[in-house]
Design a protein that fits this description.
By secondary structure, this protein is α/β, with parallel strands linked by helices. It has seven helices and five strands, in the order ααβαβααβαββα.
Length: 183
C-alpha cells in the first residue's frame, strides 16, 4: 500500500503544471479579497475541513501570516441537513454556496470518483455564479471533469490511495500558496 501510494505521488510530481495552476487561481482569489470554499463527502469532507482550516488558522507554525478567508461547506450540520431535507441531497452544497459564495471565489470540489451528485451540483452552481472551480478528482474524473476550470486528478480506482494523494496535493498547493503570499 505504501509503495502504491508513493508511486502515485511520484507520478503526479512528473507534471507540476496542474498544481501550479491551482495555486495561481487561489493566489488571485486571496489577493483580490475573495475566499476559498471546499466541499466533499465522507473522507473528502474531512479533507475539505482540514484544508480550509490550514488557510483560516495556520499551515506551518514557522510562518507568521494573517488568517485567509476559507470555509468548508461540510462544517454546518444544521445547514446541510436542512438543505437535504428541503431541497434534496443534490443541493446539500449548492444551496449554501449560493448564499455564501461570490464571483471571484474558488470552489474546491473533492470527489474520489468524480461522480458525487452534491459536489457536481455545487460545481455547476459555482460556474453559474462566476466562481472558479477546482476539482480534486480520482479515476478518470467522471462527470466532474468538465465542470472544473482546474483539475488535480489522481488516476487510480482505489479510494484510499486517491484520498492519500488528495491530502498531499492539498498540502502542496497550500504550501506553495503560502510561499507566494507571504514572500
Amino acid at each position: 500500500m505504501l509503495q502504491r501510494s508513493a508511486a502515485l505521488k511520484l507520478a503526479l510530481a512528473e507534471d507540476p503544471a496542474p498544481v501550479l495552476a491551482v495555486v495561481g487561481a487561489c493566489e488571485r482569489a486571496i489577493r483580490a479579497g475573495n475566499k476559498i470554499i471546499f466541499c466533499g463527502n465522507g473522507g473528502s469532507a474531512a479533507d475539505a475541513q482540514h484544508l480550509a482550516t490550514e488557510l483560516l488558522i495556520r499551515l506551518r507554525g514557522a510562518v507568521a501570516r494573517d488568517s485567509w478567508p476559507a470555509l468548508a461547506l461540510t462544517l454546518d450540520a444544521a445547514a446541510m441537513s436542512a438543505a437535504v431535507n428541503d431541497f434534496g441531497i443534490d443541493q446539500m452544497f449548492a444551496r449554501p454556496l449560493r448564499g455564501l459564495g461570490k464571483a471571484g471565489d474558488v470552489l474546491v470540489g473533492i470527489t474520489t470518483s468524480g461522480r458525487s451528485s452534491n459536489v457536481l451540483h455545487a460545481l455547476q452552481a459555482a460556474r453559474e455564479m462566476g466562481i472558479v472551480t477546482v476539482g480534486f478528482l480520482g479515476g478518470d474524473g467522471g462527470p466532474a471533469l468538465p465542470l472544473c476550470d482546474f483539475v488535480l486528478l489522481v488516476p487510480d480506482a482505489e479510494t484510499a490511495r486517491i484520498q492519500e494523494c488528495h491530502i498531499t496535493l492539498g498540502h502542496v498547493v497550500l504550501t506553495l500558496l503560502e510561499d507566494r503570499l507571504v514572500a
